[in-house]
Amino acid sequence: MIVADLDAETLARTRFAISPLSDLVSWLRLAVAGRRHPLYGDPGPAARLALRRPDLAVLTELIPATGLGYVPDLLTPKPPKGRANHVAEQLELVAATPDGLLDRQLTERYGKAPLPRRVAAALDSGRLTAAAAAGLASFWRATLADGWPRLRAGLDADLAARARSMATHGIGVTLASLHRSVRWNGCELRIEKPYQRHSPLIGTELVLSPSALAWPEVRSQLCDPDDAVLGYPAVPAPERLPPDPVNALVGTTRATLLRDLGVARSTTTLSTRHRLAPATVSYHLRILREAGLVTATRDRRLMLYQRTIQADTLLDG
Questions:
Q1: Domain count, the chain
Q2: For residues 281 and 275, what is the distance between their CA atoms, to the nearest angstrom?
Q3: pLDDT tens across 255-264, in order?
Q4: Do 25 and 229 meet the contact criterion of CB atoms below 8 Å apart?
């Protein structure tokens, strides 16, 4: 059981905010452990391919191989207040994690066991937090970036419902309604967990954050009062089946490019046709090639891309 004391000032400063990195880390945990989400299913080939990239090596070492257990809170910093681009702002906070906080969280993660080689090397060079932020950014681009607007719409709907609840019934009723494992008795927030922890949140700010990909669990991040976040499953729950399975599998942008590659096209042509930056097109084509969905052939000075038989099967299916 986690017991968090909330004084009047903390209650007055409690706010709701969406945390993209929290959902991203939930998806990463599933991919690392080879597990499935109860609603969204398998993280998919894009996530598995991303895990092989060198820029994710340090990040994946921080995630328990089973997908269960403590993940350093530095990977899911409190969403900044009043910022439009939470992803970029949160990544900056990851990279700027103070050394003292980093040391405490690594001790929580590994205990007395030696640090993994890559983590130890990054820590010694002073690059651990920067490497973690770079890995999160890479995994974001490969997995959630294209589908985030759809997930975000569901989270926004949850925030609107919570705002109505708070306006009608007050903060106490709203806290007690977050999840069946969360209870509020007027001065303590109690969260059912298989361990004991006491977290005084006095004169600080608590962020309540809806999540789609951590569903149906509650994620408590209450050890550091300055970074206090309680993640709860968004209501209503996300749809069981996405409207377009191909979009869900490879991402909206990559699915659009794949559908346009029934004939061979160059990066420049695709960039013009879909109003995308050439670098963006090149990035998505590389992912599709790694997945065996696109081939590349050189025609004089041009590199031409065309979808494979496997991609045709995927689109037909």
A1: 2
A2: 10
A3: 888 888 988 8
A4: no
Q: Which domain holds residue 135?
A: 2-233
Distances (CA, A) of 214 to 19, 238, 260: 11, 11, 34
CA atoms within 13 A on the CB side of 97: 30
**Assigned token pair, 317:** 């299916």
pLDDT in tens, 220-244: 988 888 999 999 988 654 444 445 5
Nearest 5°: the CA angle 70, 75, 77 is 110
Mark whether 273 and 162 lie in a shared domain. Answer: no
Phi, psi angles (nearest 5°) of residue 216: -105, 25
Residue 121, classified by CB atoms within 10 Å of its CB into exposed (0-12), middle (13-18) or buried (19+), is middle
Of 172, 206, 233, the one marking the end of a domain is: 233
Which residues, at least 6 apart from 110, have a Cβ–Cβ distance to it below 8 Å?
A: none
In three-state secondary structure terms, 211 is strand
Task: State whether 229 and 130 are in the same domain.
Answer: yes
Q: Alpha-carbon distance 283 to 289, whole Å?
A: 10
